[in-house]
Each structure stands twice: as structure tokens, then as C-alpha cells.
């Protein structure tokens, strides 16, 4: 019997992963603005601080430009 470990991801990492997948799949194009913060909070059912942490993860990965909060560089 092979038992797989349980993946423990933080909520910001999960949100960042979903947004990153949208960017990498081309659903969000380079230079395109992300939806407003409130809309993203509602869509992911997370707090503002969780969303901002997720956006910081994406900015640190160079997937979004945090100054303009747009997809891509």
C-alpha cells in the first residue's frame, strides 16, 4: 500500500496558485489588469490580507507587476 502525503498549502499560496494558473494558461494576458481587489476577495472568499499576501507571492515570482497590479511584467 502506498500512502501519499497530504499537501498543506497556506490559503495565500492556494490563491496565488490559482491566479498563477490563470496567467500561465493565458486567461489573463501580459499587461492586463487583474480584477478589482474586492472582486477577487469575493471570488476566492478570502480576506483582504490573504489576497494581498497572495498578490505579493505573485509579484515576488514576477508574474504580476505589484505597482500596477497587472498580469505579466
Count of distinct strands = 2
- Average pLDDT, rounded to a whole number, is 85
Q: State the assembly state of the protein chains.
A: single chain
First CA to last CA: what distance? Answer: 46 Å
Give the CA-based shape. Answer: globular
Biggest sheet features: 2 strands, antiparallel
Over the alpha carbons, how many angstroms does the gyration radius reach?
13 Å
Find the structural class using helix and strand composition: mainly alpha
Which range best describes the helical content: under 10%, 10-25%, 25-40%, 40-55%, 55-70% or over 70%? 40-55%
> Unreliable segments (pLDDT under 50, ≥5 consecutive)?
69-73
The percentage of residues in β strands lies in: 5-15%
One letter per element, helices H and strands E, the order comes to HHHEE
Strand arrangement within the widest β-sheet reads: 1-2
Counting H and I runs of at least 4 residues, what is the number of helices? Answer: 3
Summarize the structure.
This protein has three helices and two strands. The chain is mainly alpha-helical.
Task: Report on the architecture of this protein.
It is a single chain. 48% of the residues lie in helices and 5% in strands. It has 73 residues and is mainly alpha-helical. It has a two-stranded antiparallel ribbon. A hairpin with a 4-residue loop joins strand 1 (64-65) and strand 2 (70-71). Helix 1 crosses helix 3. The radius of gyration is 13 Å and the shape is globular. Mean pLDDT is 85; it is low at 69-73.
Amino acid at each position: 500500500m502506498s500512502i501519499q502525503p497530504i499537501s498543506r498549502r497556506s490559503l495565500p499560496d492556494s490563491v496565488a496558485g490559482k491566479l498563477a494558473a490563470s496567467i500561465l494558461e493565458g486567461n489573463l494576458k501580459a499587461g492586463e489588469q487583474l480584477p478589482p481587489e474586492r472582486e477577487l476577495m469575493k471570488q476566492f472568499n478570502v480576506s483582504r490580507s490573504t489576497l494581498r499576501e497572495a498578490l505579493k507571492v505573485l509579484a515576488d515570482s514576477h508574474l504580476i507587476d505589484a505597482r500596477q497590479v497587472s498580469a505579466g511584467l
